[in-house]
Amino acid sequence: MPKARDYHLTEQELQIVETAMKRDQRPGVRQRCTAIRLLHLGYKPDEVAKMQAVSIPTVYSWIKRWRTGGVEELATKPRSGRPAKADKAYERLVAEVIEKGAAPTYLASLEIEKCDRIREVLRTRLIFSVDGSITLSARAWAVQGLV
């Protein structure tokens, strides 16, 4: 029979895990800390895996990472490969556009001439869906003053 593993945390470790569950800004860390706490409470790794919608080996990996380096080790590490296209300026622009509301509301706030220019650019540059919808990037262009 395999040896039973001990997933109990000290009071200090439990406090660290619970604080990270509530306050950490990284969703992955919150999820992994929740799994560590569930194991501490007596749930089995297969039960935790089912609750967290991950595989059992993933839960074991989180346990190992927790024991190796605590909360910081549970953070998602940068991955190799092509860097993301969206930089901080683009992310700010998207957030700004989202705050302005839906496209009809945004367009209603513009001057008629600018609406006409946007409409013409959209007709020439975008692929429309069957229902006539377009992507969010069209509004982002308008905010940047590209149209």
Helix/strand layout:
Elements: H1 11-23, H2 27-40, H3 45-52, H4 56-74, H5 88-100, H6 103-108, H7 112-125, H8 137-144
Describe this structure in words.
It is a single chain. This protein has 147 residues and is mainly α. It has 2 domains: 11-74; 88-144, no CATH class. It has 8 helices and no strands. The longest helix has 19 residues, at 56-74. The model has no long low-confidence stretch (mean pLDDT 82).
Low-confidence spans? none
- How many domains, in number, for the residues? 2
Structural class: mainly alpha
What is the H-and-E element order?
HHHHHHHH
The radius of gyration over CA amounts to 24 Å
Q: Number of DSSP strands?
A: 0
Largest beta-sheet characterization = none
| Helix residue percentage | 55-70%
Strand content: under 5%
First and last CA, distance: 70 Å
Number of helices: 8
Summarize model confidence as the mean pLDDT: 82
- Describe the global form: elongated
Q: What are the main properties of this structure?
A:
single chain; 147 residues; mainly alpha; 2 domains; 8 helices; 65% helix; 0% strand
Structure summarized in a few sentences:
It is built from 8 helices and no strands. It is an all-alpha fold. The longest helix has 19 residues.
